[in-house]
Task: inverse folding
């Protein structure tokens, strides 16, 4: 197959980990006889520095033309500590999601057995947990009207959802449940929020088309608790933008580290594949970043955008072998890890490539 992949490393460790993800894609192309062509584009702080715009028109045009996007992260401490900054790196991310119509964020949470001890949750509670989150991306409190009143002393953010927005992500989640353990949990706050009452109504109606799927509804506070107490109870989870943002970071701890988790943002056009972590300026430039989330993002890209199941599995198996051989980056190492098995970003990437 011939495919055009856009590499968008963004800021901080995004640059370091995406370089590893791209090498893995290259090796897959060579091994399986595909031709991947690449282009690169700016987003976030690096784009603001170069053009004044966190999502330059040139980047957007390249994104729309590509078959899939391997993304790094955006963010810089300069903006994190300055809430008054009008132009911000994350505006690039939000605009990209809107412009590409990326309404579903998929986060597979699966723990490699070798990392059971890296999680802060007890191994006997965790072993076998395998959850696929669908977080809605284009609606909710992030995109509604926001502002200040009473001379700036009162602030408001409006949460909004339409029937159409809820139904299209619910359908994606039901379809995914069909390929897994056939269970779907919809998370909302329908006891308090009107948007959640619409959410639940639409999910219940959509469920009529999927009688083979077992559906449950949980309030977000209960879901947050169950995720830690009994994560194996979940198969596919579908939820709104804000709840999904929080729950998926909580769930990342099941996998031991943010450095291990990949995500896919999909709509009806080009998909974006990225680690769930941010730009991590505390470790940027030190060669400490775990590149495996970017490597696993490349695996998701091949699977979801190109339908390359065998290629995707080859990457996941390579990661599994590296971990079985005892190699760790610092974020997933523990007191028992021998010093010579603790690797930096590039060395971990090389190990993954060797095992492909
Ligand atoms: P972060 O994910 O960047 O880092 C949180 C912690 O996890 C840090 O201690 C970091 O060192 C560690 N970490 C993250 N990824 C790692 C990896 N691959 N290997 C090893 N350790 C890793 O979150 P933060 O510190 O809250 O935010 C930093 C910046 O990133 C902020 O500007 C934030 O806005 C941005 N951010 C961007 C995205 C995105 O682009 N999708 C997501 C989250 C945060």
Result:
């Amino acid at each position: 197959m011939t495919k055009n992949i856009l590499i968008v490393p963004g800021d901080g460790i995004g640059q370091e980990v995406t370089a590893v993800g791209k090498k893995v894609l290259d090796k897959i192309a060579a091994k399986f006889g595909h031709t991947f062509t690449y282009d690169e584009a700016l987003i976030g702080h690096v784009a603001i520095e170069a053009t004044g715009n966190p999502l330059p028109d040139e980047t957007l045009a390249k994104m729309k033309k590509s078959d899939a996007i391997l993304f790094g992260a955006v963010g810089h401490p300069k903006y994190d500590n300055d809430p008054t900054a009008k132009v911000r790196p994350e505006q690039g991310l939000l605009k990209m999601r809107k412009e590409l119509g990326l309404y579903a964020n998929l986060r597979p949470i699966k723990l490699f057995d070798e990392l059971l001890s890296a999680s802060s949750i007890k191994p006997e509670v965790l072993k076998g947990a395998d959850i696929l989150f669908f977080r809605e991306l284009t609606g909710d409190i992030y995109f509604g009207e926001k502002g200040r009143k009473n001379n700036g002393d009162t602030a408001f953010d409006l949460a909004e959802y339409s029937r159409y927005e809820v139904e299209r992500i619910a359908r994606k989640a039901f379809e995914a449940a069909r390929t897994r353990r056939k269970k779907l949990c919809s998370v909302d706050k329908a006891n308090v929020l009107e948007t959640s009452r619409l959410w639940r109504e639409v999910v219940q109606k959509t469920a009529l088309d999927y009688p083979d799927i077992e559906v449950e509804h949980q309030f977000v506070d209960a879901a947050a608790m169950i995720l830690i107490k009994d994560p194996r109870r979940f198969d596919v989870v579908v939820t709104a933008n804000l709840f999904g943002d929080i729950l998926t970071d909580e769930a990342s701890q099941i996998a031991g580290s943010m450095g291990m988790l990949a995500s896919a943002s999909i709509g009806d056009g080009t998909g974006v594949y990225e680690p769930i972590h941010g730009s991590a300026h505390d470790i940027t430039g030190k060669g400490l970043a775990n590149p495996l989330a970017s490597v696993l993002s490349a695996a998701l890209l091949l699977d979801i955008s190109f339908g390359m199941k065998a290629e995707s599995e080859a990457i996941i198996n390579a990661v599994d072998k590296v971990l079985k051989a005892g190699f760790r980056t610092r974020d997933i190492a523990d007191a028992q890890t021998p010093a010579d098995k603790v690797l930096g970003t590039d060395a971990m990437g090389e190990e993954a490539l060797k095992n492909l």
Observations:
- DSSP finds 13 helices and 14 strands in the chain.
- Residues 117 and 336 are 10 Å apart (CA to CA).
- Residues 13, 17, 73-76, 80, 90, 93, 258-259, 277-280, 282-283, 289-290, 293, 331 surround nicotinamide-adenine-dinucleotide (CB under 6 Å).
